[in-house]
Structure formats: structure tokens, C-alpha cells
């Protein structure tokens, strides 16, 4: 997709979407939606906007499908997956505001000829990183192919189009999926058998076809007659070209194993010698609700009891000096207006309509901002979490790679009155059980005194959690 240059002269009001985005060139279209390039008129940031016709999805009975796609896109936030920034709606349209990927489809590169093994390996490593991330969150793409793999301006891969994706909740009692879907040349043999299939194994078959196409320049299973092609897929009839290295040939054979039980798994791929060459695990974190990649090598710490005691053995005078230093450098927290305070009620808060909020809580304190920040940093140091601080926002990032990635907790401080602040805590990534355990054993005990400072002055204070809704919001404007 070539970048669209939008004129900086007088803006055409007819092209402004909801007074925020200047709509440009049509990038693509399907049965129910069109995708346009657009620019945020405030930030000048380029985005892709998918515009869905509500009437068509209502007639097609696809409301649940759209909601599921939104839920999936909010769940799989990864550097190698196209990001959904926000969802808006009017009476007739739904708008997905998404990351604009400038480099176009990986398919366009392959169409010019096969890739060198090193280049193909890099894309395959990024593909497996993204797919493994999805599977750990119970999401299965089910339509992986070069046309759905985009490249950004840095040449990094981005998985797109989760329209056919499924989640663990859709698995039947036999533990399998039964929906026949996917692109013919990339579909797994067990899907053709229509006896139920494992979503993870089906994705890995498609990854195998993608790897073969990248390095061979043609499909492993191909025939002008689609039924003849299905027969080849079902029997697993293919041959690796002579320019494949032995390691590549072996990996393709393991990926394109017609028996899903013996087909290679993601943990096995991660240990594969061909795959591991030059592979670097991606580290990333969230800032201002956007993904930021990190090159830091987060190694597992080796703390003993003496180490933990030494962390908390700072003298009182040193601690006071540190607090004073922070007081001088910390800006004033953002003030809460009446609408912010009203939104504290679960019935009024609309911020979670289209995203998985996870666990979230707030508490009120009369403690200085610097003391709250210091306490959060102290908690992080004790458990060896990484701390990222920006103004009155603190992010605590774990090092342990759980099923759903490292635990990440964000804390933001707002001014309620000149002497009172609200501290909002959110789980940004990681497992819910791990988060609950961390809150109960570390966060709550350590922050209890800060809460008490306000509770003694105003006993009626309490923390609140936010519940999300599945309804589609509407603005008063129409497209």
C-alpha cells in the first residue's frame, strides 16, 4: 500500500470523519466494509479506518461476529500484529481505527520471486512470535497467508485480518472447532476432513505453507482443479526444492505433517535449530495505550532474603531526601472534572465498551504524589519488577513469562482536590490470577497506609472496579 499524501491546504469538511479524521484514499473493500487511509487532524498521524455498514451486518446476522473481532483485536496487542486503536459508531456505521501499515502485503514481495532463506527466516520468526502470542490468549487466526501478512516501514511483519478468527469459548465439548473456513491452498487436511480440528495445529499448518511459499516462490500443494488440490493436501503430497537447506526442509516437513498429533508445536519450533538462528525475543510495553518495543534483556533475577532486606534498609534521612527530590521534579497531576468523577460509577463509564479492561481499581489518598510514586517504585524493587515512569504515571513490568506474557500494571494519579488524589490501578498485560495474587500479597498491604490516610479523614471512601459492556456506542452524528 503506497502512502497517501493528504493536502495541507484548505481541508474539505466533507472528508472529515466525526470531526477528527481526514479521510483519504480507498485502500480496499469487502462485502460488508471498506478500508480508507485517514489522518488524525490533531496529531497528523496516519491510520487505516475500516468502515462497516451496520444494516448489512444486521441483515447478515454478523453482529456477534463483529463484537468477537473487536474483542480479539483488543486481546492480541503485539508488535507483530496490526493494532486496533479505537472503535467508533454512528446510527448507520461502525468505524475501526487501526494502525496503518505502509509496506503493503508480504504477498507482493513473493510475487516478484522467492526470498532468500535469511529473509524468509526473519519473517517466519516474527510470524511464529505473533501466532504463539495469540494462542496463549486463546485466539486462533484460521486464515494465515501472505496476503494477510503486512510489512511496516521498517520491514517488520504485521499479522492482519482477524475476521475468521476464533476464541477458546467457541470450542465444542469435544475440545475442537468444527467451522469450515480458510483459504483453499492454506487449509489444513483435518479441516477438509470435517471431523473437528485443533485451532493451534491448523494455524501451524498454514504457517508451514507460508514458509514454503516464501522460500520456494510457489505453493507446496497446487492444482487448477480445487478438488485435486484438496486431495494433495489431504495426502500431504509435496516436495521441497533442491535449494532448501536440510534444516529448512526438515522444518517444512514437520509443519506440513498431515497428522495434527505429530505436527510440530510452537515450543518445539522455538527450539528448532534452523528457527533459532538470529532469533531475538521481542520485549514490549504499553505507554499512552500504544505498544513500545524494548531491547532490554530482562533476565530472571536471583534474589535471596538478604537482597530483599537490603532493598528496604535505606536510612530515614536518605528516604526523606529522595522524597524531596521527587517532589521537586514531579509535575502536578491532571485534575478530574465532574464527568470524570461521574464515570467512576460502572453504570456511566463507557471506556470499556470495546476493550478487555481486565482488573481495575481506584483509591483516594491525601498522601503527596511523590510518596505514592516512591511506594510503587519500592514495591517494584522488592519483587524485581521493572519501573517506567512518565509524569504521574507509573508502569510496573514483571520479568516472568507467564501463559499470557509478563504481568504489567499501570498506576496513574489524578488530582481530586488540592489535598486529595485518586490513584487508578490497571492490569495492562498478564494473567488475571497472577494479577490478583500480586495485588493481595504486594500492592494492597504496601498501599494500605496511603489509603488509610484518606480513610481516617473521610471514612466513607472506597475503591471501585469498572465493568465493561458489550453494547455498541453511538454518537449523535451520522456518516
TrEMBL record:
Residues 21-275 form the Protein kinase domain. ATP binds at residue 50. One of its GO terms (biological process) is signal transduction. It is an enzyme of class 2 (transferase). Its cofactor is Mn(2+). Keywords: ATP-binding, Kinase, Manganese, Nucleotide-binding, Phosphoprotein, Serine/threonine-protein kinase, Transferase. Residues 331-355 form the NAF domain. Its EC number is 2.7.11.1. PROSITE patterns: NAF (PS50816), PROTEIN_KINASE_ATP (PS00107), PROTEIN_KINASE_DOM (PS50011), PROTEIN_KINASE_ST (PS00108). GO terms for molecular function: ATP binding; protein serine/threonine kinase activity. The keyword Transferase applies. Belongs to the protein kinase superfamily. CAMK Ser/Thr protein kinase family. SNF1 subfamily. CIPK serine-threonine protein kinases interact with CBL proteins. Binding of a CBL protein to the regulatory NAF domain of CIPK protein lead to the activation of the kinase in a calcium-dependent manner. This is non-specific serine/threonine protein kinase. It comes from Acacia crassicarpa.
